[in-house]
Amino acid sequence: MRWFEVNDTSEALxxxxxxxxxxxxxxxxxxxxxxxxxxxIAAIDEQRPLDAERVCRYFTDEMDAGRLYRMGRNxxxxxxxxxxxxxxxxxxxxxxxxxxxxxxxWIGPPQADSLLFLYFIRYDRMNRNxxxxxxxxxxxxxxxxxxxxxxxxxxxxxxRGVMEQWHSQIRGMVRLVYMMSRKTQEDFNSIGPLSxxxxxxxxEEYDEKEAARWDEKIKEITHKLDExxxxxxxxxxxxxxxxxxxxxxxxxxxxxxxxxxxxxxxQSIRDYRGxxxxxxxxxxxxxxxxxxxxVAELVMKNDLREREVxxxxxxxxxxxxxxxxxxxxxxxxxxxLRVLNDLQRMNxxxxxxxxSLIGECWVEPFLDKILEILHQALEEGRKKAExxxxxxxxxxxxxxxxxDVSDCLKSLRDDMGYRFPSYLxxxxxxxxxxxxxxxxxxxxxxxxxxxxxxxxxxFVTNIYPWQVQLLMVGRYAEAEHRDTGDNVCxxxxxxxxxxxxxxxxx
Length: 506
Prior knowledge:
Elements: E1 2-5, E2 12-18, H1 23-32, E3 38-42, H2 52-64, E4 76-84, H3 92-107, E5 115-124, H4 130-144, E6 152-160, H5 167-180, H6 186-189, E7 197-206, H7 210-226, H8 234-260, H9 286-306, H10 313-318, H11 322-330, H12 332-344, H13 353-399, H14 405-415, E8 428-435, H15 437-446, E9 457-460, E10 468-478, H16 484-492, H17 496-505
Parallel strand pairs: 1-9, 2-3, 2-4, 4-5, 5-6, 6-7, 8-9
Antiparallel strand pairs: 7-10, 8-10
């Protein structure tokens, strides 16, 4: 075992072409990269075949706008392609090869010698389509055998089996791409062993404090789901009164204007346009003044009924648990009375009888809006919260897998494996064990041992908030290898003779 201090300096612009519009991928990119180190393109809507000129113009415009670091002439480019296996049709190898060659021509020397294309293919075993799997195996096998002209390439398959999740493989994918974008260091991020290959990914991370962090999240979301925070609904009433005050202040000003400009208002409701009244000039006639004012007040009340109720409803929802929301829905009439009573006690605003009537007109549609929001929060928010809690519990179980760093290092290597069918064995394996400076300093002092890593390099780098990360890439196919076709077919669960027969038929 030997130690290697990683130089974490960025030496590449990372271009992400996401054909799945993956929220998980965007989140992990934001966690791993600095904002200006990568450009994300939701390629699900991109033209097909891919247009290299369009992609170049996009990230050039991003640089000009200051949203990307401006590249020097010696910097390299790392392309991350993320797509489902169903996208791998018969013409896919030609499309990817042509795109790489176009990028080489557009970028030009010397960067053209530093183009790296990384293709990550997602395969969900539980949503398998027989024909798509057969076509994907054929296309990917053909592409692995190719040596593209526009730089170096490597392919990876993210494999999801029964009762499994994507998270660790997506994390491993982003971590690998991040490593490849750092300053070139032979022991750390040379593409050499991965060039023109198809690989599986295994990734794990550990921090002693991670379990405590998930415990806190679980506590918070359990409170939101199963406990009361404001059983008396005081926050709901208070926020409702505050919003009502703002509206009534506006109405009060309008009513005051009536007395100052009585003769300026039309007699017909048809002549009014909204709550902000226009100035109309006419003859001052005492006989019709009261009628005009009455019409104006009627218009105001009608306008209140029809106008969109606005306010900071997110505050109300945030201050309430789901049990509070249930309580509010069941007692909304009582809430309405409490709001009106609180308004009536505020003499500085609520002294005018006419204003009182207007306030009553406003409270009803306001509470209807509250009901709508609470129903939506209960329907959508509770379901989302339950899903988040299940995810938190799963991550908590995983975080508590090891009792401390020493236990993790001893067991981590043996606990990891690739998701592919067990009868498939990697032709070659590359491992990166990364630790933070704290762990490296305490290694000898605390007697740490990394089992299964005796002949490996330990990389010391900034992996906050983690103490330990282990990334493994297993090579299952490579260009011009006799087992490439069989192994690719094995990953997608198809027979080689079926592909051969299909190709002969075509």
